[in-house]
Design goal:
Length: 573
């Protein structure tokens, strides 16, 4: 296949920018580079026809997985980034369940984990053979580019005529999510994953030492001014009682989950939309937060915390492992307040964790009281490639991944061994029961993030509404320092406190992305670097005007023009 300059430009852009507006996906550990292994010989030619091969019969009408939808011997290959926590993909409980409910013998082609996207881009650019199906989180632009090049097949007709679980969920209301996986050309090239969790959507949490508050006869602060008063008491009044000035009033890390205090504290001044490049919108007009006076005021507030030894500068240099050593200091408690997405930063049985309680969002000097919302939308995870010998069969397998038991198994492991449906005894004991999410899932043994042979690390399509994810987990009624329970207690104080018109995702055309991909990366890199520099004092705030001028020099005005164009298109203007 001849490579056109247009396609080569798109591939180059993908290699330059491998992230876009939206949530990030955790990466697993390195694995041996086996991506150059050839796909199964069965996937030997490009397929534009939806006619099943002669070796198997695809049941005509999509329906529930009461029986396999393929009869007779049938094999299919899935390409994915290999996770070292997965002991054996071939015998994995999730694989076995998919094979049982589909009738398909699933083979695998592995991509190196940290370089999976790069490897895929190289294979596409060279028109190398790909597996029938690929399961991999990709950005909107990557999906659109691979679809436009013909590498990924458009699935619009299959959604309508060849799905059971997808059609069922769309009819129940999930269709409102389709714009977030519909490429600018109008085609849908992915079967997505939907995995909303309140604890992830409102994850910019802040924690404060309730033991120290009680010892110093202080209330939990509600405003930025009150926070300063509390942090000064933590600094000066020896709340850990060891006669040393060794307390860290406020501290975090530079690479842990939301462990820099920016997201929490800046929201008392202006909306901190880091999931979507700090974009703002009002009455349909797109703007950014990071050149506004309110942003400068937030930086000035945090810089004052550093100058007065209230916010430790270690926050900006230490990694999460060094942070954990301070948190778990065996001699005495050292930490007064911290930013963290989860209390899982502590050891499971940590004594130090028992001092901490969540702090509700603070109100700033002008009354601003906001929380960052990380959107839980449809995210691209599964694709049928042009090399699929039977596209309908490949698509039907992706559709099956939206079935309830399979979707839950993808996250929690094998039913009956690692989880089970909640029984009558667990009803009323859900982590988020007070928010209207019923107790649905009882965890028997946690396998998430652990070596296991029960799931693939949740890197395939799935449909898990709140009740089928962490939100539907039961609680034992005793473990008040369990990190999931502590998150569930914090969420009600955070949920809903976003802006009136949040920008959740921007879908750019290939032409738009070609123009602004590198520009976007330059802007966000500069903003992040200078935010840290302003806070710690490496760049004085007297340089603010020069900072704003540099944003314009990089190309902020053009970036906003292109983004406005894309935003208008997404909203039907």
């Amino acid at each position: 296949m001849k490579r056109t300059p247009r396609l080569l430009a798109m591939i180059t852009a993908l290699l330059l920018i491998l992230s876009a507006c939206g949530g990030t996906v955790p990466q697993a550990a390195d694995t041996t580079d086996s991506a150059t292994a050839s796909a199964s010989s069965a996937a030997s030619s490009a397929a534009s026809s939806a006619t099943p091969s002669a070796e198997a019969k695809l049941l005509a009408d999509p329906g529930p997985a009461d029986a396999p939808f393929v009869t007779g011997p049938y094999s299919l290959t899935i390409g994915l980034a290999q996770d070292t926590n997965v002991e054996n993909y071939e015998t994995n409980a999730y694989t076995v369940l998919l094979e049982k409910k589909s009738g398909i013998d699933i083979g695998f082609e592995y991509f190196p984990t940290k370089e999976a996207k790069q490897k895929l881009a190289i294979l596409v650019a060279s028109d190398s053979q790909l597996p029938d199906v690929i399961c991999m989180p990709l950005t909107d632009m990557e999906v659109a580019s691979y679809g436009a090049s013909g590498t990924f097949l458009a699935l619009n007709d299959m959604y309508e005529n060849n799905s059971y679980y997808i059609k069922k969920r769309l009819a129940e209301g999930a269709d409102k999510m389709l714009p977030y996986v519909t490429s600018p050309d109008g085609n849908i090239y992915t079967v997505p994953k939907y995995n909303p969790e309140h604890g992830n959507e409102w994850d910019g949490r802040f924690w404060i030492n309730q033991t120290w508050l009680k010892a110093l006869n202080l209330e939990k602060p509600k405003t930025t001014d009150e926070l300063v008063t509390v942090l000064k008491a933590f600094r000066d009044k020896d709340p850990n009682g060891n006669g040393k000035k060794d307390e860290y009033p406020l501290i975090g890390s530079n690479n842990g989950w939301n462990q820099k205090p920016h997201r929490f504290l800046m929201n008392a001044f202006i909306y901190y939309n880091d999931p979507c490049n700090f974009l703002l919108a009002e009455n349909g007009k797109i703007d950014v937060a990071y050149n506004k006076d309110a942003w400068r005021q937030g930086l000035e507030f945090m810089n004052t915390l550093v100058k007065e030894d209230l916010l430790s500068p270690l926050t900006f240099t230490q990694d999460v492992n060094q942070f954990k050593q301070i948190l778990e200091n065996p001699e005495v408690q050292l930490v007064g307040a911290m930013a963290a997405g989860s209390m899982s930063v502590y050891q499971t049985d940590s004594v130090r964790k028992q001092d901490m309680i969540h702090l509700a969002p603070l109100t700033g000097p002008d009354g601003t009281n906001l929380v960052t919302r990380r959107p839980m939308l449809f995210d691209a995870f599964g694709y049928v490639t042009k090399f699929a010998k039977d596209p309908d069969v490949a698509f039907r397998l992706l559709d099956l991944m939206w079935e309830d038991e399979i979707s839950v198994t993808a996250r929690f492991g094998e039913k009956g061994t690692h989880w089970d449906w909640a029984g009558e005894a667990e009803k009323g004991m859900g982590l988020y029961e007070g928010m209207g999410i019923p107790a649905t899932i009882k965890i028997i043994k946690n396998v998430w993030g652990q070596p296991n042979n029960a799931q693939w690390g949740d890197i395939a399509p799935a449909f898990r509404p709140y009740e089928y994810g962490v939100g539907g987990q039961t609680w034992d009624g005793k473990s008040i320092y369990d990190s999931q329970y502590m998150t569930a207690q914090a969420v009600p104080d955070y949920i809903g406190k976003s802006v009136a018109e949040p920008v959740l995702r921007i879908l750019y055309t290939a032409e738009e992305n070609d123009e602004i991909a590198e520009l976007t990366n330059s802007l966000i890199t500069y903003v992040n670097e200078q935010t840290d520099a302003f806070i710690v004092g490496a760049t004085p705030l007297s340089e603010w005007d020069n900072y704003v001028k540099e944003l314009e020099s990089i190309g902020l005005t053009r970036y906003l023009e292109v983004t406005q164009q894309a935003y208008d298109r997404m909203n039907g203007k």
